[in-house]
Amino acid sequence: MKNSTLFFRSLCIILLLAGSAHLFAFIANNKNQPTVRNNKKIPLAPTKDTSITHIEKEIPPNEDPLIGFWKVFYDSETPSDRISIIYQIKKEGIAYNAYSIRYEDESGFSQKAEGAKVLTIENLSSKEGKGIYTFTYEKKTHKVNCDIKIIDKSTFQLSYIYFGYGDVETWKKL
Amino acid sequence: MFDSLFKPIPWTEVETFFYLLNDLSVFYIIIPFFIIELIRYLYLNKLSKNLIYDSVTNIITVFAFLSIEYIIGLLFLTKGYYWIHENMSLAHLPINFWTITCCILIADFAYYWDHRMMHRIGIGWATHTVHHSSEYFNMSVAYRFGPLDAIFPILFSLPIVMLGFNPMLVLLAEIFVQTFQTILHTEAIGKLPKPIEYIFNTPSHHRVHHGSNQKYWDKNYAGILIIWDRILGTFEPEKEKVVYGISTPLDSVNPILVFLHGIFRFYDKIIQIKGLTNKLLAFIKPPNWTPLSKTKSDESSKKSI
Predict the structure, then answer these.
(1) Mean pLDDT over each residue of chain B, to the nearest integer
(2) Which residues of B touch A13 (CB under 8 A)?
(3) Which of B82, B137, B109 is nearest to B223 (CA)?
(4) Do B93 and A13 count as a contact with CB atoms less than 8 A apart?
(5) Could A10 and B113 be called an inter-chain contact, meaning their C-beta atoms sit closer than 8 Å?
(6) In chain B, what residues touch A14 (CB-CB under 8 Å)?
(7) What is the DSSP letter of A169?
(8) Which of A131, B167, B211, B286 gives a 20 to 30 Å CA spacing to B42?
(9) What residues in A contact B102, CB-CB < 8 Å?
(10) SS3 per residue for B141-199
(11) pTM
């Protein structure tokens, strides 16, 4: 068989397999997925929550410093609307995944979150990392690449830019 | 139904799936089947000391191979794969049933070309000849590896990572292909039903690959799917009785000699070749190539050893 025939047949096979994987990934990505949050004005139920101390007790000692519960504050135009969200980061296989656990407002009221996956960190060194950040805007779920900057053992910054809109979140460990 | 094809699968489930197929298959397929093969040899009055020693040698070579693989993994593979995935890859593909299937098929196709290259270039055959040097054909032969057998697959798996597949998934898919290949090393199973023989690599097809009969040279490189050989012109069905081994037999069950004999023979060949260019060409030219060889038929891998 000619080398050129071998080359083109091989190329066709690779394009078929890799192409179909990418095509269906693209289609699946565009479908509505049961994710996420980041609606920063969330109606909170008037139930005072005391589960944070409970959460703290659940963190096993001597574990990977990234694994555990983290809190992020989201500013609003009016200070009274400032809320925070508690996430839980778990290591699942090779990746770290963050799930929303609970919403809190300034007055201490809180509400259980959907448990949606909002962040996947696949690549992380001691200083920085990269991940995929998922958020919902106008009822559409968006996934964007984000950068992780480790500040110290209990703080990291997550930054992303999406169609000209950028944001930096500071994640504080509980 | 289609939704389930594209539904994200948690990595823990993927790991469990491959753990069952790759790691545990040693206990529920390979070892029990090898015992059946030994009983079969006994029944056919073919069980000899040499066969036992040959099998033990095969197992020893796999530990040497795994040591090299482990060192390469620590030094290069893990970090290198992830660096390529982050910096030189197409859009990262999600983990779902469809992408896992595509990854296994591409890993299988990469295996075909890796295998073909190991037969068709001098340095490839120098290491892969170890696998073909046994005069027996049983499950233990699948574990008979050469010293560089862990290196060549990297050349073919890195491009898969560049296509956007998760590096760990690529590695697990490659091991799955290798595991499937392992269970093909048997004389105890004849031909399977035609549709299976047409699509999948089977013990019959792989016996042909291990044959030293001239018509079987450099045929049936496939891992899981024999259709790659059919598409790329290297398929040969099992018709005449297969004679296993290489044309210049090793006649030894010494594990060190078995593991390194291909490299020793290649070294001897390089020493005899004159001129630096020719010496370098011997690495990438077919195994039987010499500066004087002219015809393609003289360059088949099995003939060179």
Answers:
(1) 90
(2) 109, 228, 231
(3) B109
(4) no
(5) yes
(6) 106, 109, 163
(7) E
(8) B211
(9) 17-18, 20-21
(10) HHHCCCCCCCCHHHHHHHHHHHCCCCHHHHHHHHHHHHHHHHCCCCCCCCCCCHHHHHH
(11) 0.71
- CB-nearest to A93 from B14, B85, B113 is B14
A34-173: CATH class: mainly beta
Q: Give the DSSP letter string of A41-96.
A: S----SEE--HHHHHHHHSPTTS-TTSEEEEEEE--SSGGG-EEEEEEEEEETTEE
Give A41→chain B minimum CA distance, Å.
29
Please say if the pLDDT value at position B185 is more than 50.
yes
CA distances from B299 to B212, B279, B284 (A): 15, 16, 12
pLDDT in tens, B193-221: 999 999 999 999 999 999 989 899 999 99
- The minimal CB distance from B86 to the residues A1, A27, A130 is found for A130
Query: How many CB atoms within 10 Å of residue A57?
Result: 7
What is the C-alpha separation between B209 and B86, in angstroms, rounded? Answer: 38
- The CA distance from B40 to the nearest CA of chain A, in Å, is 40
The full set of domain ranges for chain A reads 1-31, 34-173
A20: chain B residues, CB-CB within 8 Å: 98, 102
CA angle A39, A42, A46 (to 5 degrees): 160
Give contacts of A 77-106 with B, CB under 8 A. 92-95
Query: Would you say the ipTM is above 0.90?
Result: no
